[in-house]
Specification:
The structure holds two protein chains of two kinds. By secondary structure, chain A is mainly beta. Chain A is built from no helices and eleven strands. In chain A, a hairpin with a 5-residue loop joins strand 4 and strand 5. The radius of gyration of chain A is 13 Å and the shape is globular. By secondary structure, chain B is mostly beta strands. Helices cover 0% and strands 51% of the residues of chain B. In chain B, the strands form three sheets. In chain B, strands 2, 5, 6, 10, 11 and 12 form a six-stranded mixed beta sheet that branches. A four-stranded antiparallel beta sheet of chain B has the order 3-9-8-7, with no helix packed on it. In chain B, strands 1-4 form a two-stranded antiparallel sheet. Classes of the chains: A mainly beta, B mainly beta. At the A-B interface, strand 4, strand 5, strand 9 and strand 10 of A face strand 6, strand 10 and strand 11 of B.
Amino acid sequence: EPEVTQTPSHQVTQMGQEVILRCVPISNHLYFYWYRQILGQKVEFLVSFYNNEISEKSEIFDDQFSVERPDGSNFTLKIRSTKLEDSAMYFCASSGSGGAHEQYFGPGTRLTVT
Amino acid sequence: AQSVSQHNHHVILSEAASLELGCNYSYGGTVNLFWYVQYPGQHLQLLLKYFSGDPLVKGIKGFEAEFIKSKFSFNLRKPSVQWSDTAEYFCAGPQAAGNKLTFGGGTRVLVKP
């Protein structure tokens, strides 16, 4: 069964550094998402991406965040200057179409900012 | 805006006991609801989904959920749990105007052997 993959599984970085989290969505999917879960808190939506542009973003997704689909397979989340509060599990998801269709989640990248 | 809430944060029960996890939503438009499960060390997996039609939805691993519009609820049930059902369970729904999922706070379920 096709699945969403994410790398790395765990990233440790120092405050102020840039990180890039990588995702490979399911190959025929068209919609891509990033969510995050701070330890002990809810899973929160960050951004959705369709047709090579952001379709929706949350308040969390400020100027330090960006997303890109650099080629036909990867979908990346960049955090330009990490803060301690960016420490969280970041989940990538993809879906075949928008609206009421299930999103398939990757295993997550645990980001630790020290 | 749609919100989703789960009232039980932690549930502990023994094998063969019945499980019911509460989920309430607030939204006046078309409702699409999901239950996801996250087993220890694994990613979020879809248990079941409701879009329309029969309000009693059956999912994988013996789980079912009932959509009750008058109560704004979408509770998850399993008549007899197993130790392997130990996991965190998340109720979620999409915004009508976009595709993002809004998650409830999650319920950690521990099934004692």
